[in-house]
Amino acid sequence: MSRRPDPHATTTVGQTATPPTEDVQQAHQLLTRGFHLMESWDDAEASAIIAPHYTNAEASPEPPPARQPGIAGVRATYDWLHTAYEDLHWTMDKIVAEGEWVVARTTMSGRHSGPFTTYSPDGQVASEIPATGLRFAVSQSHWYRIADGQLVEHEADRDDLGQAMQLGWFAATTPSAGKAAG
C-alpha cells in the first residue's frame, strides 16, 4: 500500500525530499536575517525586517524599554542580551513554516561576560546574576509571525534551566543519605 506524502512536510526547510516553496524559502531567509541582527545590530537591516508594530511576548523579564513595540523594543532586547553575554550566536537547526507562522529550532551559544538582570512587571530589578565567564549552548524554539515581508510577532520556548545549570547559577545539592531518627 503506497502512502501519500504529508502535505505539511513540504514546509520543513532542509528536511524533506520535496523542495521548499518560495514562501518557505523567503521565511527562512527572513529568520536568518533576524538572528544575524540579534548577533550584530544594524539599523538599516532592523528597519527592513522588523515591523513597526512588532511585539515580543517574551519581553516581560526584560528591561522596560524591551517591552515596547517595533525596532526600539528589539534593540533594547539586543542591548540587554549583549550586556550579559559575549559571542552570542544562534545556529538554526530546523525551520518549519505554515501560513504566516514560522518556527525555528535553534541552538543559542555564548559566554556569560556581564551581569544578567531580570525585571519585575513594574520594571524594577528582580534579580541580577554576576558574570561567571562560562560558556553555554542551549536549545530554543522561536515562533515568528510574518506579514508583508517583516517580522511582526515573536514567542519562544527556551531551555533556561539548562542554561542556568551550564552557567553555574545554581549551587549543586545532593540528596541526603537518610534522615536521623527522631
UniProtKB/TrEMBL annotation:
Residues 1-21 are annotated as: Disordered. Pfam families: SnoaL (PF07366). It comes from the Bacteria. Residues 9-21 have a biased composition (Low complexity). Signal peptide: none annotated. This is Ester cyclase. It comes from Terrabacter tumescens. The lineage of its organism: Bacteria, Bacillati, Actinomycetota, Actinomycetes, Micrococcales.
